[in-house]
Amino acid sequence: MDKMIKLKSLGLLLGIVSILIGLSNCSKIENGLSQLQWQIDFDLVNTSWDIQFKDAATGEFIGLHDDTRVEVNITGPDQAHVLDMAGIRHDLFFSTKGFLGLVLHPDRGNPGENDPVKITVHAKVDGFLPVQVPIETFHIGIQPIEIMLVNLNAPPEGVKVFHEENISNVVYGKLEDSLLLYTPGNRLELLIPKDTELRDKNDLLLGGPLTITLALWDCTKESAMQALSGGPLALLNVTQFELGIKQPASQVFIRIQDQYGKIASQLSKSMEATFLVDPEIFHPEIGRFVRPDDVLPVYVLDGLTGVWSRENTVVLEAFQNKVLARITLNESGMFHFGWMDQSYCPNPLPLIFSSLPEYSLLPYSFRLKVYRNYDNQFQYLFSFCIAGQTNGNSELRYLPVGKELILRFEPYINCSDPYYRSPDPVLLTGECSINEPLENHLLPLPPGEVRELDVVFIDTQHNNTEYTPASFAGYYRKIGDSCWNSAMVYKGTSYLYKVNPGEQYEMGINFKGQFHRKEIVISESGILHVKIEID
To answer: From the centroid of its chain, how far is CA 109?
Structure first.
């Protein structure tokens, strides 16, 4: 049995947990976004996002071994202030090797407790389900974000996917034949009636053969919960609260697309979706497992804004010792069957990590998972990591009120060995108090060699002028290794950990849609001077 540490603390982390990094303030850019040059941007920016896109089944970076790029659109109140690492605003951003670095325009002002930066990341790539991830940033510094996408051909356990091209035919916008489609195991069945007229969001008729995608999440499976579309937070179409915590009985995705890429969003006849709900799903409002005749809320996602709206309800039915949901739908998209918890504590819980002084430069990086205490059932995934240097302060946000949960830490440092032993599990009582921080004294594993880097950019388009970057996320790996480790760069200074003198490593950064690399030979001692050419 895990050793438990009981604290009268708050409930659960949902969102980014990051070290507060104090950076110098600089003058305002007078010419606005369109005149911002990347050379100036690095001197002014003090808030950035290090986004990593991963396959939900394998954990591997998307595009690591090829040129696959994730297409990213930003919406939300602060979308106009989000720039790439070159200081340029785009309608669309693109990852390279699974990485995307974004920065906040300094004219926006620093994020704060009462003025967080609010954006939604819309990510899509061929062969994966699209996702919309809401993000609130409360502090300056580098914000690490991990986004999981479901591979249509190899989904994680607990996510059943049907994806097929050239199905049936649409003539003058109408479906020629009825369609009855199933996910593997017949857990989700979809019936689309003959002569259904299909229109897209611009009221244009679909035509020709169809590509249809169905997906169903079994939310008793930990792997499926980790792969919830958009993560555990939901941006809600309500007035009192903006963010809710997903508590799904199931999640369903339906996409109907024609040969021209138009996606059906309006149907003249109702589709009937029938799917199984695991009877071990916990009903949070009643305090027991779901039963026939229970009523579940139904939320639908607006793919353009990333906002979930409550649209309907579904009554559960008994079916061969199982629980079944049956609902009629007049649109395709992403659907959440279950609850959105909006009752979370108004204040964050301080999170303190410490270690012995001689290890203070080692970064810590953990993934956080939350389980219900009474039955040890997996409840939430934090697909974000705590990353930073010890002897600093972080915080836990969006903590549900009055729910006794277990918080577990697991190593997360991409694919290398962790630097610290994972802290013991913590029992969270759900009491809204900020007087008792969550403290962890970290015990280091053998750290190996550490080397300091002095990083300079060379602007090859402007007479090879040298610039010192302010703060951004870089990556490094030993030559021949398959994946990358994080190397946060603060004002041109970074550190490489667990390296071997005399061996060759490479450093990489995502800049202006390209992945720039620089080979490094680890010296016996001293500072390594690294110059990276940027065009």
So the answer is: 24
